[in-house]
Structures are given as C-alpha cells and as structure tokens.
Request: fold
Amino acid sequence: MRLIVVIAVGLILLGCSTKPELKTGTWRGVIDIQGHDLPFNFEVSKDAQGGYDASIINGSEKLLLDEITFDQDSVVFTLHIFDAELKARITEDGLSGFYIKNYEKHYRIPFKATFGQTFRFDSTNTGSVDFTGKYSVTFTSKTDTIQSVGIFNQDKDKVEGTFLNPTGDYRYLQGNVIDGKLFLSTFDGNHAYVFEATKENDSTLVGEYWSGKTGYEKWVAAKNDNAALEDVEKLTFLKEGYSKIDFSFPDLNGKKVSPSDEAFKNKVLILQLSGTWCPNCMDETKFLTSWYDENKDRGVEIIGLAYERKDDFTYASGRVKKMTEKLGVNYSFVIAGTNDKDKAGETLPMLNRVVAFPTTIFIGKDGSVKHIHTGFSGPGTGIYYDQFKQRFNEIVNELLSENLSSKN
Reply:
C-alpha cells in the first residue's frame, strides 16, 4: 500500500513539473476591450535553446516577444519592452487568461487565443464598400476634440492604415470590412485599440474608438487628399526670455548629466523626451538608435529623457536599461520624471509645456535651442515617416554646418 502511495505521489509531482506544450504556428488572439473584441495575430516558434519565441503581427509589423515562460499549466508572454504581459492557461481549445499591465493596479483584461486562425476580424465576408483614401478626422471625447489625419488602404475585405495626430500616430492598424462596416485594431503590448466605422456617403465616415479599459471617443472623417496636421514644430516652444535648456538629471547609474557637461560642448545635441511605456517612443528610439550609430562621429550627441510610470528611480532605471538592451541603444538616457505631462513640464520650466511623448529638441553647437518637434510619425505612417526622416536630417545638417567662430 505504501509503495502504491509513493508511486502515485511521484506521478503527480512529475505531472506538475512537466512544462506544457505551446503549439507553434499562427494564432489569433482576442482581448475584450469594453465588450468589444480586439483581435490580433501572433506567430509562435521554437528558439535555438528549445524554448519559445512569438511575434505579434500588426499589418507589416512583427514585434518580437523573446521572453516566454511557464507557470504550471499557464504561459506568460512578456510584452517586449513594456511592463505588461499576457498570462493564459493552455487548454485543449487554445489559451484563456488575461492581458495585464503590471504598472497599473488591477489592470487585467480578459484574453483568449485560438491556434491556426489567420484572419483578423472575420474569415468569410468580403468588402463591398471601399474605405481606401486619405481623410480629415475629428476625434471627440467627453473632454477634448482632436484633429487627425486618417490613411486607409483596402484590398478586397482587408484594410491597413493609421491615424496621425499632432502628438503621434496610432501605429499599424489592421482589419476588415464586414457587411459594409470598417473594423480596425492594433495591439503592440501597450496600445490596445479598436476602431469601427460606417460610410454615410462617398466621402464621409462616422465611427467609434475604444482603447484599454475605459477610453472611448467618437470620430468623423471626410475624404480629403489635402488633409494635414498643424505645424508640429510650433506646438512646443521656449518661454520668452529663454534660449537654452538646462537640467541635471541622473543617468541609469545615478550620475548627474547636464547639457552643459564637457561631453556635449561644441556639439549638436538632440534631446528625446520619451518613456518606455510609449510605443511611439519605441519607434522613435529605433530610428534614433540606427541614426546615431551612423552619425555619432559627426559631432552630434543624443540624450534620452525618460519619463516613466512610477516615481521610483530603481523601477524607472530598470525599465530603461531593459529597453536600451533590447533595442541596442548606444546613446545616453537619464531619468527625468514621471509621465504626467504637467509634472514633466515642471522638470523643464523653460518650455511652454510638455505636449507629447515623444518630443525632440534640437540644440546647436552654441547651446541654444534651434528647433522643437512635437510627437513622431513612425514607420506605420509610410510617406509621413519618410518626411520626418528628411526633415530630421535637414535640421541636423544645418546645425552641424554652423561655424561657432563666426559668432564669437
């Protein structure tokens, strides 16, 4: 009898210690956003060590998730550089669990996934209404109205596109037209957005937008090939009487850094106001990382000013260190404050305000602020991203060509 009990206990322990299998291939995930399905696709594969990798798919983007762990019968996907995760029990039918933001209390949203499904919103319908085009868009919430530009490209029932705001873009949106109605979604680990719209006539869209646990806005769009944003180089500026930006913030190891340090003397200096919680900032950091590696010997430096979700240096520096390691960042970062825009503005009192993360500030060799660019149009915006890169290089080249001796 004792032998049978020992064997039974051993089998139970062996069963508990066995890592569950995660099917490799394409999955369709669904997050419950305020009662609306937010679908996204992801691919799972085995890595070189016998573990797992996954890639979240939004349009042409594939966002690598290389931290996948197991907790008994559950799998945990750490969501790239963000302090968030998908945690789900592996069942015969797929995955069932939650989307969790670790930096927010009680932020758990139902999540499920089905293996082998490659469609986004629907697998059978075809688009009978064409939403392709460029639109002037107005988003309206209970407290605010925002002017935006919408860009959509439709192929049969499949649609990709984005919205551009003065403070940034909504990155890669993907969806379908179902029974004449437009459905779009994106999920990149921190953005969790769902859009719906109907076409009132040949040129007007009326829609709704849900984000996260509570965000909701209505939107209307008018087809307009000349749709444009307000000038993003005029939204953030120096207050009267100021010509320079000065600060003293700790780097990731606690050492104080200032624009007036000897390391930045007689150099063009770029300040990046950002946060590791911000997908648009992630996009800009990827651009700046590549750009800096190619241009750092020209007499230019970059300081990233991180405004994180918690007013805790250990937490904030840990998040930034993880981000710089994952993205291969070789320029400097300092911990400047928290993501509250009003409080962020207090850390840089010479600015009229902090309007958006990211914000990019260009400082000339003489230490004076030359240009301030609010927001960022990332790779999901196509030609607008190309225009941003062109303007960025124009500004830097102009500042590098300045002759200090002629001003002294």
Q: What stands out?
A: The chain is about 20% helix and 40% strand. The CA atoms of residues 372 and 392 lie 11 Å apart. The helical segments are 2-17, 279-295, 313-327, 341-347, 383-400. The radius of gyration is 24 Å.
